[in-house]
Amino acid sequence: MNDKDYNSSPSDVEIILIGIAMAVLTGIVAIVFMFAEPKKVNDKTESSVKSTYVPYTSPPTEPPSTSPPGFYPDNRDVYCVGAEYAPEEYYMAEGVYMLIANSDDGKAEFMTIGTDEENWQEMEQYYFQHSCIVKLEKGYNFMPTYCDAYSLDIFDDYGIENSPFENSGMFRVGIDVPSGDYRIVVQDEQEIYNRVVIYDDIDEIKYSDSPENNLLNKNTSEITLKDGEILDLYGCLLEKMS
Q1: Cβ contacts of residue 117 below 8 Å, gap of 6+?
Q2: Which residues, listed in sequence order, are joined to residue 81 by a DSSP beta bridge?
């Protein structure tokens, strides 16, 4: 390149090409800032790049593992027991649970509905006060109302009092209440759900139990409890016999 060529003014073609290049560069910068610049939502900075949405039709293939282990709060309409297809917030592991009422009056209920081919006609609905033990199996939906569910394996670590001297409910003899002789104290004579039922163990609990198994219908006022049994009280407390 000689001095003449070096000092000459750019041609019209060169000016046009430079203009096009600058316009393209400006457009690229604008696009980058449009996607990267944060926006304000309720005075908080939020990225405009949204997370990937996974629709219900693409559920996890493995049971979720990030939920708090063994605790299922009463903030869902339904939990799917052992169902790998369920979204994480609706998944509930199989097992035995202690239900604890969270209502002001200490009353609660739950419902289980069969969902698979083997159990689809089965349904349970049960009313209780303060506490209830339930064994949940795969193939059912579980619907708690005014109660939280704690896995029985971890329930004792939560420090929740479950005493038949303070509340009605369901109690493990030898754990929640010592074995021995007790007097039944009825709290509300008008409650149609009032009951005192003793089961041999957790597997013997029947939520649609027949009235003849209710010891109140037999005018029973004193009972003897043995380790391993399950005591179910509604509208009643226990009093230790001297």
Answers
A1: none
A2: 92
